[in-house]
Amino acid sequence: MTPSPAGTLGIDFGTSNSAMAWLGAQGAARLMPLEGQAQAMPTAVFYNAEDNRTHFGRDALQHYLDGTDGRLMRSLKSLLGSPLLMETTQINHQQVSFQDVIATFLSSLRERATQTLGFAPTRVVMGRPVHFVDDDTARDAQAEASLRQAVQSVGFTEVSFQLEPIAAALDYEQRLTRESTVLVVDLGGGTSDFTVVRLGPKRMAQAERSHDVLATSGVHIGGTDCDRQLSLAQVMPLLGYKHRGPDGREVPSRVFFDLATWHLIHWQYQPKAISHAQTLRSNYSDPALHARLMQVLSKRHGHHMAHEVEQAKIRCSAGDADTCIDLSVLVRSLQAPLGVADMQAHLQDLMARTVACARECVQAANLSKASLDAIYLTGGSSALRPFQHALQAAFAGVPLVEGDLFGGVALGLAYSR
Predict the structure, then answer these.
(1) Beta partners for 324?
(2) Which residue range(s) make up the domain with 108?
């Protein structure tokens, strides 16, 4: 077999979205098209039960939203380090492990890279969060080992890892003209990671950069946690969350938390879960709310609802304007309001914990906020207005620089040595 040309493929395997970049022997790293001209794609797999085909990214989401019979899998990265990873689930009459689902998605990424490059890449640098699992080093190591195994199983022979915020820093460094001390903020779908790092054009040529990294920190909070919080606050009450029954007690909440959590939704479609939800009928004073819950479970509307929550969050943040969550899949014209003030209030605690982690990172570097030249934002969730407002309040006077929110980490991974 003819060896592939020298180069590095950087893969940002994200909780919500993924991206890839290629750096050849010469030149600059470049993002790769993944779906048409789009350089990022949702980390989603849809197993089509009608024709046994497997779909990825936007194509996967569209088949699900169009009502095609099958199984949608999202937030796959959240399973790394979880006991669920090696469990199997039935997909098109076969038992498939979640580890295999991750490998299937990664195989699709490698195939897309091969189509663009004209050869199959063998060297890859994978991004990883500062912590796959908070406060559990053994599970964190197992998460990386599981991801390495999945990457190797699809044909990559030289696999290394780089922390995602450091990768983002390496991308940002390409456009700097002077030495700077930067807080890199990487908010993805599942984690928030921070790095204080020295960057500059004179440092780029150095092979060893560990001494430039002054501190790293991370917390397991990301965009999907925001989606869950907004779903619980604005949508799940329409199914009975916090509803009080005839005895004055609230309806048991487990089913609502699972329906609001991307990677747990599909478990609620299982016969056992539906049977349990049916027994909750006596806990409701309003039978219409229980009927609506059963409709969501029996017709598998959970992912559709989660998608609408995510889209409303993006609209509300991008436009800095009130919007509504479309729930017409349940009842014609049914909507749940989502205002700017609502989002600010519902996400306040998550944002405070995230910004506290950023502060801890700067403190661990033995610096004051006045020592920072910039805060560099990457990761789709860093665009959230409530987060940016909280960050500006905590680091007043430090400029916020917005990078390529979906491609910056992938580019930096390709530059990693």
Answers:
(1) 337
(2) 7-163
For residue 64, give both structure tokens.
Answer: 């699900």
Alpha helices of 129-220 — where are they, by DSSP H? 137-153, 164-173
Closest by CA to 340, choosing from 363, 358, 315, is 315
Q: How many domains does one find in the chain? A: 3
Nearest to 395 by CA among 77, 183, 175: 183
Specify the pLDDT at position 4: 60
pLDDT of residue 1: 41
What pLDDT does 417 receive? 66
Q: Are 188 and 219 in contact (CB under 8 A)?
A: no
Domain match, 203 and 251 both: no
Regarding whether 249 and 138 lie in a shared domain, the answer is: no
The arithmetic mean of pLDDT across residues 288-304, rounded, is: 95
Which contiguous run of DSSP H or E holds residue 346?
helix 340-346
Which amino acid is present at 16? S
Please return the burial class of 320, using the count of CB atoms within 10 Å of its CB with bins 0-12, 13-18 and 19+: exposed
CB of 214 closer than 8 Å to CB of 368: no
Mean pLDDT, the chain, whole residue set: 93
Report the alpha-carbon distance of residue 298 to residue 228 in Å, rounded: 21
Per the domain annotation, does 197 fall within a domain? yes
Structure tokens at 180: 């700077």
Judgement on whether residues 106 and 236 belong to the same structural domain of the protein:
no
Q: Name the residue among 241, 236, 235, 231 with its Cα closest to residue 283.
A: 241
Q: In the block, which residue shows the tokens 């017409």?
A: 328
CB atoms within 10 A of CB 67: 11
Same domain, 374 and 262: no
The two tokens of residue 38 are: 């789009």
228 and 217 housed in the same domain: no
The reply to whether 154 and 22 lie within a common domain is yes
Contact 16, 43 (CB under 8 A): yes
Quickly list DSSP for 39-77: S-EE-EEEEETTT--EEEHHHHHHHHHTT-SEEEEE-GG
Residue 417 lies in a domain: no
Cβ proximity of 355 and 375 under 8 Å: no
Domain assignment present for 409? no
Helix (H/G/I), strand (E/B), else coil: 317: helix
Q: What is the pLDDT averaged over residues 375-393? A: 94
